[in-house]
Amino acid sequence: MKGTLLEPALEALSVLVYAVVTTALTVLGLFAEQAGANALATDQTLGLWMVGMGAVALVGAYLVATGRLLPRARALLA
Hints:
Organism: Halomarina ordinaria
Domain DUF8151: 1-76
Number of strands: 0
Radius of gyration: 18 Å
Helix content: over 70%
Shape: rod-shaped
Transmembrane segments: 12-31, 46-65
InterPro entries: DUF8151
Keywords: Membrane, Transmembrane, Transmembrane helix
């Protein structure tokens, strides 16, 4: 009985965790992109690295959202 009650709660918790990870990666990526663009505007070569890391974070957010978050959220709501 406990297993049947615990399973939906754990699934909802995993959806929440993936939502937080996706949000954190998106925010981190946007801040890195903005800082990189500002650094490139002042002719600093570190800006290129920051833009690249921002892009990696945004791609990571997309992959987590489409690969983990959305399928689990759909299964939870179905």
